[in-house]
Amino acid sequence: MNNTMVAARPVDVAKADPVHVDMRGVTQRYRTGRRGDLLALDRVDLQARRGEFVSIVGPSGCGKSTLLYIVAGLLEASDGEVLVDGKKINGPDPQRGLVLQNSSIFPWRTVEENVAFGPLMAGVAASKRRTLTKHYLEMVGLKKFAAFYPRELSGGMKQRIAIAQMLACGPSLFLMDEPFGALDSLSREVLQDQLLQLWERDRKTVLFVTHSIDEAVLLSDRVVVMSPLPGRVKEIVPIDLPRPREEARASQAFGQLRNHIWESIRQETMEAIG
User: What residue ranges in 85-219 does DSSP mark as E strands?
Assistant: First the structure.
């Protein structure tokens, strides 16, 4: 294997796009009563450049989701700070859109009403809401299902509703926590391709948590490998595969990157249990 191709390397942000998300010494402790504090994240330093697609992988329980929720403003870090566009975050913000594994769509609202909900809460005029909703339903391929309710649709379609719902709010940062984790393999690959097309169209910044190494390699500019509890950044692997990535899954370079990341995670896991 060509180690120079996948070796971790620092990003020279001065020569790249501006830093969009800047995590500085992010630490998270949970109180567990008589057993003392549980250290979930330990001094995580990580940056994402504007327009960059960054995936976070690692063993179960390494704090991947916790880190994402801190960036979303849903959880306050015990120590450290997160800056977005140079400003310290202070709670949730529409500019930071969040999509979860179990979609957060409203079952009592139609597809169209779900997508329009964010603009409605933001006070967007009805005519503009209709235009936005139509645009994003077309973008995710759900225009024909505008009047349907979520219970009438498949799991993959529900996740597309959640993505359209996020897009309609106009965030500059996408935070995605295992959004395709509950889907069958075919639906997952279809949504991966659709997400890539959406990202390549607008180049929003994406922080993407996944247990799938293949998914991380396919989608990302960089893959962050986390260590087991407490979560730390073990390695950052640049994904130097050409875009678009339609043929990437079958390439030798893809397999080398996947195997390198898998071995990195395996070593950490074996050390943690051994």
Answer: 87-88, 96-99, 173-177, 205-209
The identity of residue 98, as a single letter, is: L
* Residue 264 near residue 235 (C-beta atoms within 8 A): yes
- Per the structure block, which two tokens stand in for 4? 């120079």
Q: Which residues contact 182 (CB under 8 A, 6 or more apart)?
A: 101, 102, 155
> CA-to-CA distance for 260 and 258, rounded, in angstroms?
5
The pLDDT tens digits for 51-77 are: 999 999 999 889 999 999 999 999 999
Q: Which residues, at least 6 apart from 38, have a Cβ–Cβ distance to it below 8 Å?
A: 29, 30, 31, 32, 229
Dihedral sign computed on CA atoms, order 77, 80, 84, 88:
positive
Q: How many residues does the chain have?
A: 274
Between the two ends of the chain, the Cα-to-Cα distance in Å is 27
Cα 64 to Cα 252: distance, rounded to the nearest angstrom: 28
Classify residue 264 by burial, with Cβ atoms within 10 Å: 0-12, 13-18, 19+.
buried
Residue 244 and residue 224: Cα distance in Å, rounded? 21
pLDDT (tens digit per residue) in 90-135: 899 989 999 987 767 899 999 999 999 989 988 899 999 999 999 9
Q: Rounded CA gap, 256 and 101, in Å?
A: 28
Contact 227, 58 (CB under 8 A): yes
CB 110 within 8 A of CB 164: no
Could you tell me the two tokens for 151? 């219970």
Name the DSSP letter for residue 44.
E
